[in-house]
Amino acid sequence: MKVICVDFDGVCHKYSKGYHDGTCYDIPVDGAFDAIVKLQNKGYKVVVLTARQPLSEIEDWFEKHWPGEYGAWPEVTNTKPVAIAYIDDRGIRFTNWVDVLNYF
Asked: 26 with 11: CB under 8 angstroms?
């Protein structure tokens, strides 16, 4: 099964105040859960990647916000999985180092 890796903060969790106090304080990003389910229905395994610790806080957040009719929420990990794509609100697409350096 092909894996799509999705960042937690700013992609699933709205993260409107940034790091703030380190808690998962915010609501879901509009459309995030529907998009995850659509990707799953297309045959992708969606994995949520986070640097947050402990992972149980993210799982608690999903338990609170994930609609029950969607079934189980995605796997949550802090280890970067092998994936065909990584969706992140702060990512820069690598093409070559000249372009990356020009970005900054």
From this structure: no
Among 28, 24, 23, 26, which residue's Cα sits nearest to residue 11? 28
Percent helix / strand / coil, the chain, rounded to 5:
30, 20, 50
Q: What is the pLDDT of residues 72-93, one digit of tens each?
A: 999 999 999 999 999 999 999 9
What are the extents of the domains in the chain?
3-78
Question: What b-and-e string marks burial along 25-64, b requiring 16 or more CB atoms within 10 Å of the CB?
Answer: ebebbeebbebbbebbeeebebbbbbebeeeeebbebbee
| CA 45 to each of CA 23, 36, 84: distance values in angstroms, whole numbers, following the listed order | 26, 9, 10
Q: Encode pLDDT of 38-59 as tens digits.
A: 999 999 999 999 999 999 999 9
Question: What is the token pair recorded at 87?
Answer: 């969706």
Distance CA 28, CA 58 (A): 12
